[in-house]
């Protein structure tokens, strides 16, 4: 099951956290995986040393021209996992115009542009898998993550709109929405025992998730076993959004 031999995948934001674990699991199941990151070519290359059958694909998704640069490195892929995101924590009326643009461009616009760029190759093959990575903040009203939640809710709506348009070409598109997960982004906050305890009290399962809790659902959606799932969302949050 979940055999991705012969498939090529691109995972954005794959040098750490959830993106890294998704890339590692796809490669473990036979896919050739392109590791995208924005900070440096070196960081992508270091990550590739940890994941067999992977190649670096450095590009800054905030720069529209880098979408073309990324495609030139990967060419057509069978699997596109849109994990890269940027998150600022501020009250809703304190964001600068630049901070608004950065979040929306990375979390939503780049996903749209990447889908446009890669979907023709999938159509030509009659097979494709697109997975966007959302967030529990699409549902929770976090006072300092309003724009982040808005961008992820819009991304989810995009997958729902595109799903019936792409399905006739053998392409599925779905969203995975993680809850509180132990990643480098959350490391500082989770290091505070009082904060961690308060957060866990809001999670019915009673604990913070790990990237390993998220990646298997992405693997399902990227495989032939997930061929009958499109326009859907899988919430992986220990019940937090309830």
Characterise the protein shown here.
The structure is a single chain. The protein is α/β, with parallel strands linked by helices and 242 residues long. The protein has a single domain, classed as Rossmann fold (3-Layer(aba) Sandwich). It is 43% helix and 15% strand. The protein contains eight helices and seven strands, in the order E-H-E-H-E-H-E-H-E-H-E-H-H-H-E. Strands 3-2-1-4-5-6-7 form a seven-stranded parallel sheet, sandwiched between helices. Helix 2 links the parallel strand 2 (32-37) and strand 3 (54-58). The chain is globular and about 50 Å long. The two termini are 31 Å apart.
List the helices and strands and how they pair.
Blueprint: E1 8-11, H1 17-28, E2 32-37, H2 41-48, E3 54-58, H3 64-74, E4 79-82, H4 97-125, E5 128-133, H5 146-166, E6 171-178, H6 187-190, H7 193-200, H8 211-222, E7 233-236
Parallel strand pairs: 1-2, 1-4, 2-3, 4-5, 5-6, 6-7
Keywords for this entry:
alpha/beta; Rossmann fold; seven-stranded parallel sheet; 7 strands
Query: What's the CATH architecture?
Result: 3-Layer(aba) Sandwich
Helix content: 40-55%
* Rounded radius of gyration (Å): 17 Å
Reading off the top of the CATH hierarchy, the class is best stated as: Alpha Beta
Strand content: 15-25%
Number of helices: 8
Structural class: alpha/beta
What CATH calls the topology is Rossmann fold
Write down the overall geometry.
Answer: globular
Low-confidence stretches: none
């Amino acid at each position: 099951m979940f055999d991705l031999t012969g498939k090529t995948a691109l995972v954005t934001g794959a040098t750490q956290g959830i993106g890294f674990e998704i890339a590692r699991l796809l490669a473990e199941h036979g896919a050739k995986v392109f590791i995208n990151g924005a900070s440096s070519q070196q960081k992508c290359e270091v990550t590739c040393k940890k994941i067999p059958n992977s190649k670096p694909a450095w590009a800054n998704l905030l720069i529209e021209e880098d979408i073309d640069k990324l495609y030139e490195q990967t060419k057509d892929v069978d699997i596109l996992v849109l994990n890269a995101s940027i998150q600022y924590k501020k009250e809703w009326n304190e964001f600068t115009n630049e901070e608004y643009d950065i979040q929306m461009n990375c979390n939503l616009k780049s996903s749209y542009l990447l889908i446009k760029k890669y979907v023709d190759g999938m159509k030509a093959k009659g097979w494709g898998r697109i997975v966007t990575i959302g967030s529990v903040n699409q549902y929770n009203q976090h006072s300092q993550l309003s724009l982040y939640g808005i961008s992820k809710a819009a991304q989810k709506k995009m997958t729902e709109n595109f799903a019936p348009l792409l399905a006739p070409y053998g392409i599925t598109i779905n969203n995975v929405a993680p809850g509180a997960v132990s990643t480098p982004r959350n490391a500082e906050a989770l290091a505070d025992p009082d904060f961690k305890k308060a957060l866990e009290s809001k999670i019915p399962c009673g604990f913070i998730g790990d990237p390993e809790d998220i990646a298997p659902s992405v693997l399902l959606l990227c495989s032939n076993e997930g061929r009958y799932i499109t326009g859907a969302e899988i919430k992986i949050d220990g019940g937090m959004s309830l």
